[in-house]
Amino acid sequence: MLVCGASFAGLAVAAELAGAGASVLVVDRYEIGERQTSACGIPTQWLRAMDLGTSERQRFDELVVHTPWRTARWPLPWSFSTFDYRELCALLWSRAGEAEFETATVTGRRGDTVITDRGELTAPLIVDALGWRRVLSNAPPIQPPNASASTSWSFTRPGGPPAGPCPGRSRPSTTASSAPCCGNAPARPSSRPPP
Ligand SMILES: Cc1cc2nc3c(=O)[nH]c(=O)nc-3n(C[C@H](O)[C@H](O)[C@H](O)COP(=O)(O)OP(=O)(O)OC[C@H]3O[C@@H](n4cnc5c(N)ncnc54)[C@H](O)[C@@H]3O)c2cc1C
Question: How far apart are CA 79 and CA 59, in angstroms?
Fold first, then answer.
């Protein structure tokens, strides 16, 4: 099996495949954990559920918003943690057993053959874990904000205290529901609880 991309998705899939007895090769343009792809904030419970707690660095029980006018604090329904990217990747990779890793830049796909800067790789199962640019798709590359799978943080204040104006905005955002604050992307209300 060929897993393209050695970040969260690729390493998690590699561990599952290797655990099922598959012969797995993982490729990435960088060494595992070398280039952080995320700000690395996650609900604490998710880290615990995946037994990745040793990569935790800080834990936050409240949302703190600093503006030039004041600081507002809201308690969170669950805590968030930051984690060390390299360490978390190493933990995931340690679960991939006999899986092998090679650095290679993927440039495209022809059927079940993946083309890289180090040659072509053919496998009965190809996992595209290269992130949002969909390099392996035969569709045109996609960029935010048109990427349908792209997400954005949004700040909602249902019943919360009114906030001051956002820097750069011409009017204060004082309405309670799904008022985007200082985001560039269109904000959608999102309040998915952790499983
Ligand atoms: C600025 C920013 C901050 C974010 N912060 C958070 C956060 O705090 N919490 C959160 O939950 N989510 C966050 N996200 C979203 C999160 O980063 C993604 O959901 C997550 O990284 C997706 O994981 P993935 O494994 O699918 O892809 P990625 O993490 O993007 O991994 C893709 C892997 O593929 C490799 N790769 C890419 N192209 C090639 C190629 N052509 N050839 C070879 N290898 C290649 C890359 O090196 C990388 O290792 C953030 C996103 C951004 C952009």
Answer: 7
Domains: count for the chain? 1
pLDDT in tens, 96-117: 999 999 999 999 999 999 999 9
Instruction: Answer yes or no: is the C-beta of 169 below 6 A from any ligand 1 atom.
Output: no
62 vs 192: CA distance, rounded Å: 17
| Residue 43 in contact with ligand 1 by CB distance below 6 A | no
Determine the pLDDT at residue 119.
Answer: 97
Residue partners of 25: CB distance under 8 A and separation at least 6: 1, 2, 3, 99, 100, 101, 102, 121, 123
Residue 116 CA: which ligand 1 atom is closest? Answer: 42
Q: What is the CATH number of the domain that holds 146?
A: 3.50.50.60
Contact 4, 126 (CB under 8 A): yes
